[in-house]
Structure formats: structure tokens, C-alpha cells
């Protein structure tokens, strides 16, 4: 894996901060008692502070996880996370939306733990009809274990955008006319889990989970789904004008594209669209279409 490129200079930091201050909004607080169900972990997932905080923990016996009560067909999903501190090698904290069945769609954030002092890797992927293999990975420009930070997924009919603290880090466009599948028809629930993946998560599985550090704990707050709820085959947005939901037609403007390029230039550590060894017969279509634009 390539090392991260040089850090931005003062002018770049000023530009980025200015852009973010203009566009960044903190997610409004939800209530986990109303919004989610803890689905596994035998008590290792806990809802605290009158529904304002949720924690997941992992020990040698089990991890834990939760899912949203609602299904959604398009939306903007925000969650504030504080990741496992210290030696988190081998652990994965996952935060994603996914549909049901064997031909599922999925939009993924996965946070790959590391040895104390080494950076987390943010692993992103987009699945369509059960097929992923669209990994992009990033370092972060902060320590994600000392405080809460906001991770967002925007999903509308034309764009999927991954955000960290309001900064776009990845965009996946609807290129269906070029023959690229896009998640459009399957409603998804939001899921999160904390689990052991020391067979691959840290340095390709070379670094194993140190169970003497258990239990490992990740914390969640301020879940907000500004989204179309799907229930009994009907969308809650069907009778509403899309003009009431800015995310419905949201895309990156020129300022957003500059931030995206800045993040990818300075913090991207893996891009499947650059991995020629992996695709000796040629890159996936979305890589070549996007690169021509």
C-alpha cells in the first residue's frame, strides 16, 4: 500500500476550512430507543443516556451490532462515531446501509483498527446486486478515537457520496447508461457492528487482535436519517416535492469537487481504479468513464 502523500500547506488548509465552514451541518440528535434495534451481541450493545448514546463492544466470545427499524429508498444518513481507542488491531467497526436478499445493494464505511499510534484506515465500498470489489481506502486527518466525528452517506438516484465531518471523500455516480449497475430499486436498512476480523483487517491479517485489551468499545450518537422511508411498497417521499429535501438532487459543486480532490490527493491510500495488477484484463467501466471526465 502506498504511503500518504504530503500534507497540505497553510493556504490549502485555509481554503478547505473556509469551504467546510460554509457547508458543514451537525446532525440533529435522534433517539436510539426509537430508531434502532440491537440485533446481536448478548448484551454487548447498550443504549445509554436516555437514548442519546449507543455503545458496541467486542470481546473474545462475541462482537455486537444494531440496525435501523426503518428501511429507506434514498436518503442522507449521518452518525457520529468515536472509534475503539488504543490497540484496536484486528477489529472492524462497520457502518453501512444494505438491502436484503442474495442480490443485495450496499454502501459501506468500515473502520479498520490498528496498533496504538498507527492510523485507522477508512475502508469504503459500493455493492450492486451482490457484487462489490469497489474498494477505496483513506487515512483520516484526525485521531478518530479521542472524540466523536460525523460520518455521512448521501444516496440519491444519481450520486452516492461519502462524507467525513462534512468533507466529501468519495463519490460514486450513476453511470447506468454506460452499463454500470447502480443501487436504485432496493430499499436498505442502516446497520452497524463491531467485530473481530484479524484474518484480514490489519496489515492483511499479519497483526492479530490482542485480547488482553478487550473489551473493545465503539460509541455512537446523533443518528439522523433525512431520508425516504420505505414501508409496504410505498415511499414516504412519494407525495412530497423533492424540493423539500435538498439531498434528493444533491451533488458536488465546484467547491465540493475541490475538497474531494484535496482529500483524495492527501489521504487516499488505496483505489481499486488504480490497481492494474488486480485488473489485468482492464479496469472496471466506472473507472474508465470517470477518468475520462
UniProtKB/TrEMBL annotation:
Keywords, in A-Z order: Apoplast, Cell wall, Cell wall biogenesis/degradation, Disulfide bond, Glycoprotein, Glycosidase, Hydrolase, Secreted, Signal, Transferase
Gene3D superfamilies xref list: 2.60.120.200
Active site as annotated: 106 (nucleophile), 110 (proton donor)
Protein location: Secreted, Cell wall; Secreted, Extracellular space, Apoplast
Post-translational changes noted in the entry: Contains at least one intrachain disulfide bond essential for its enzymatic activity.
GO annotation, biological process: cell wall biogenesis; cell wall organization; xyloglucan metabolic process
Sites where a glycan is attached: 114
Record carries keyword Glycoprotein: yes
Residues in GH16 domain copies: 26-220
Pfam families attached to this UniProt entry: Glyco_hydro_16, XET_C
Family: Belongs to the glycosyl hydrolase 16 family.
Descriptive protein name: Xyloglucan endotransglucosylase/hydrolase
